[in-house]
Amino acid sequence: MDSVVVLRVRKKGILILPKRIRERVGIEENSDVIVEIKDGSLIIRPLRPKVVKIDPKIVEELLREEYVLEGQKYEEIARGLKNSARH
Q1: What is the spatial distance between Cα 64 and Cα 86, in angstroms, rounded to a whole number?
Q2: What is the pLDDT of residue 68?
Q3: Which of 10, 39, 44, 54 has the highest CB neighbour number within 10 Å of its CB?
Q4: 32 and 47 Cβ atoms separated by less than 8 Å
Q5: Which residues contact 64 (CB under 8 A, 6 or more apart)?
Q6: CA-to-CA distance for 71 and 3, rounded, in angstroms?
Q7: Which of 18, 63, 70 has the alpha carbon at shortest distance from 44?
């Protein structure tokens, strides 16, 4: 059942969502919301990040590869500094 409620926009654009509205759509205190402008209207909805299951072994491998690549970058920078100091 949809409903229409009139709310007053306060100083600095503050809009207070009554508890009964927040509860109906699952917006809790201090939670983030998405505000979308569509066809001249505002759409406010709770931000619900997608939870993705990832194998921890894959994450470890990716982090290990990133660690090696970062080490190589630092070595190249250090070599460049040594070469520029010689000249």
Answers
A1: 34
A2: 93
A3: 44
A4: yes
A5: none
A6: 58
A7: 18
In 35-54, which positions are buried (b, 16+ CB within 10 angstroms) versus exposed (e)? eeeeeeeeeeeeeeeeeeee
Contacts of 47 (CB under 8 A, 6+ apart): 31, 32, 33, 34
Q: How far apart are CA 25 and CA 21, in angstroms?
A: 7
Residue 31 and residue 45: Cα distance in Å, rounded?
Answer: 11
Averaged pLDDT of the chain: 90
pLDDT by position in tens, the chain (length 87): 577 889 999 999 999 999 999 999 999 999 999 999 999 999 999 999 888 899 999 999 999 999 999 999 989 898 888 787 776
In angstroms, what is the C-alpha Rg of the chain? Answer: 26
Whole-model pTM above 0.90?
Answer: no
